[in-house]
Amino acid sequence: MSEVCKKTGGDCYGVRELKLLFEISTLLNKVKRDLKSNLDPVIELLADYLDAEKVILTILNRENNKISIEVAFGLSDEERNRGTYKIGEGIIGKVVATGKAEVIPKVLEEEKYLNKTGTKLEGDVSFICVPIREENEVVGTLSIHRIYNQHITIAEDARILSIVGSMVAQAVRTRQEIAEEINQLQDENTKLHYELKERIKPSNIVGNSGKLQSVFDMIELVAPTNATVLIRGESGVGKELIADAIHFNSTRKNKAFVKVNCAALPESLIESELFGHEKGAFTGASFMRKGRFEAAEGGTIFLDEIGDLPASTQVKLLRILQEREFERLGSTKPIKINVRIVCATNRNLEELIEKNQFREDLFYCINVFPLYVPPLRERINDIPGLADHFIAKFNKNNHKKIKRISSSAIDMLMVYHWPGNIRELENCMERACILSVDSVIRSSSLPPTLQTAISSKTKSSGTLEAMVERVEKQMILETLLSTKGNLLKAAELLGITERIMGLRIKKYEIDPKRFKKASKISD
Hints:
Blueprint: H1 13-28, H2 35-50, E1 54-61, E2 66-73, H3 77-82, E3 84-86, H4 90-98, E4 102-104, E5 125-134, E6 137-147, H5 154-200, H6 210-222, E7 229-232, H7 239-248, E8 257-261, H8 267-275, H9 292-295, E9 300-304, H10 311-323, E10 325-326, E11 335-336, E12 340-345, H11 349-354, H12 360-366, E13 369-372, H13 383-397, E14 404-405, H14 407-415, H15 421-435, E15 440-441, H16 464-482, H17 487-494, H18 498-507, H19 513-522
Parallel strand pairs: 7-12, 7-13, 8-9, 9-12, 14-15
Antiparallel strand pairs: 1-2, 1-6, 2-3, 4-5, 5-6, 10-11
Helix pairs in contact: 1-2, 1-5, 2-5, 10-12, 13-15, 16-17, 17-18
C-alpha cells in the first residue's frame, strides 16, 4: 500500500519516483536496435510524471557535430525535423558543449532560448535541459517544457531528468553509433556515386551543366548493357567522346574499340572496309582482308556519320543488326560476330527517310537507345571550364604560358552562338593562345567573328528608329543595284508592294536612274 503525501494528499513523492524509475528500467531492458519505438513510452512516462507539455531527447552525431531530435513528446513531425542544433547553439547546444544542465524558469525572458522547433509558447513556460552521458562523454540531451509553477522546485525536476538521462544513456549511445554508421555509409555511397560518374566522364569531356549531366546519367544507364546506341547532335559537339565513354565503361572495355567515319570512306571502298573481302573479289584484291566488324569482335564498333552510308551498305548493316552475321565481299560463307554497335550522326534521319535516302527499318534498328548531345549554345555555363581546359592543352602542346583569360574575353565567349560548337571553341582558343603576348588572353586575341560593337569600339549611335532606317536604306540600295534599278523587281525581292517601294524611294531621296546608268557602264 502506497504512503500518502502529507503536503499534497496524493501518493508520496518518493514512492511515485521509485515507481517511475522501475517502469522505465523495465522498458529499457527490452530495448532493441530500433531505439525510437522503445524510448517513446519512456518519454511519455516522464511527461506524465513531471506534468510536462513537451519532452525532448536529442542525440549528438559526432561525424558532423550536429544535434538532432530523436524522440519527442508533444511535438509534431514538422517541429521535430526543425530541431537541429550545432554544438554551442542555443540552450541544447550549450548543454552538449559544457556538459552542464541548464534551467530556465521563464523561457520568454531568456535571449539564448532559440525555439528552433517553432513551438508555440503561451504564458510562462519553464525549460530544463540536462546532458546524457555515457562513459563521461556527452551523447545527447534530455529536456522538458512545463508551465511555470513557483510552488514546484525546479531542481527536483532537473534531478529526476538527470537520473532518467543516465538510465537511457546506453540506449542513446547505441542509437548514436547507428546514426553515425548510417551517415558514414551515406557519405561513402555519395563518394562512390561521384567516382562512378567521374569514370564514366572521360577526362577530355569537360562540363558540369545540367544538360550535360543528363547525358552522363544516360551513359551510366546504357554503358553496362549491349544495347545499340544512336548518338545525335550537331557537328562538333563531341559525339565521338560520348562513344568513348560508353565503350570504356562497358563490360567490353578490355576488348577492341574500332571507329569508322562513314562519310570519309569512298562509296566504292566502304563495304570492303566494313565487311572485308576475299582474294580476287575485285580488281586489286590480291589477298584476303578482314573488315572493321571482324576487327571489333567481342568489342565495340563506332559508326560515325551513319547518315552518309550508301543504300547498298545500309542493307548489309541491317542484316548485321538483326542476324549478327555477314559475308565478306566475294564470299558466300556467313560469319557470326559478337559486336556492340554505337552510331552517330548530325543529320536529320527522319528527313532522309522521307526522301528515301535512309532505310526506315535500319533507323528503327539503330535507334534502340537514342542519346542527344546538346550544342554548346545550350550549355554556355560549360564555356569557362572548356576555355581553361583548352588553354592548359595548348600551353603544353605549343609551349605557351597562358595564365588566365580576361573577364571581357569570357563575356565575348559566353554571348557568341558557336555554330561550330566545341570544335570551333577549341580552334578559337588555340588562335588566342598564339596571339597572346602577355600570358593573358584578351578580347583582342579572339577572332573577328566574336567581336562585339563594344569590344571593337564600333558601337552604333542614335535612336533605334534611326538605325533601322539606315539598315532599310542600305538594303534598298543593294537591291536596286542587283536589279539594275527595276523598282518592281526590287519590291518583289524585298517582299513589299510597289507603292511602299515608291514611298521609301521618296523618303530616302534615292534616284533609281543612277542604277540603270551604272548597269550600262558596267556592261
